[in-house]
Design a protein that fits this description.
Structural class: alpha/beta
Number of strands: 7
Order of helices and strands: EHEEHEEHEHE
Largest sheet: 5 strands, mixed
Number of helices: 4
Helix content: 25-40%
Length: 175
């Protein structure tokens, strides 16, 4: 099995979700659909904190003996270090349970390609506007419960500022 062939494994993408905005989970579902089409994993499912399926019930949705859990978050923080491990009963990067191996991965936002993904998305949203006349806001969740929640957004702002593409690049937070 190569690193791109996990057809005998399951992938669980974990998002925040919302009780107020049903569209908030759409990007996570779209990401799962794209990965399914690639055929890299035998099973690809989503789980959410504020929507169904919940993090606690998602294991019943997969049959694979090896499960990769990937947080769809921009950074390490309260949700990735406290909520997801607690709700999914994870003991660390590798958890053995009921004959299954659960591998807890870093959040997608920590991937080295995140800067390119953010720039690509900004271009999609405001493609006709000159970047030299544009302010780019990087929105992170943020929380007073864990200082790491803001680190990734700040790092992305710094990287994009150093490229000199936008008039200004600013981090902002939901909390």
């Amino acid at each position: 099995m190569t690193h791109l062939d996990h057809t005998d494994s399951a992938l669980i993408l974990v998002g925040h979700g919302s009780t107020l905005n049903p569209d908030s989970s759409a990007p996570t579902h779209q990401h799962a659909d794209a990965i399914r089409r690639m055929g890299v994993f035998g099973e690809v499912v989503c789980a959410f904190w504020k929507e169904e399926p919940s993090m606690r019930e998602v294991y019943a949705m997969v049959r694979s003996k090896v499960i990769y859990v990937v947080p769809v978050f921009i950074s390490e923080g309260y949700f990735t270090q406290t909520v997801i491990p607690r709700e999914m009963e994870l003991q660390g990067p590798i958890t053995e349970r009921n004959g299954k191996t659960i591998r807890y991965c870093l959040p997608v936002g920590s991937h080295s390609g995140m800067t390119a993904a953010l720039l690509h998305r900004a271009k999609e949203v405001a493609g006709n506007i000159p970047t030299s006349e544009t302010s780019l806001f990087i929105v992170g969740h943020g929380t007073g419960l864990n200082d790491n929640s803001a680190v990734a957004a700040k790092d992305q702002v710094k990287r994009i500022q150093e490229m000199g593409l936008y008039a200004e690049v600013i981090s902002t937070y939901m909390e």
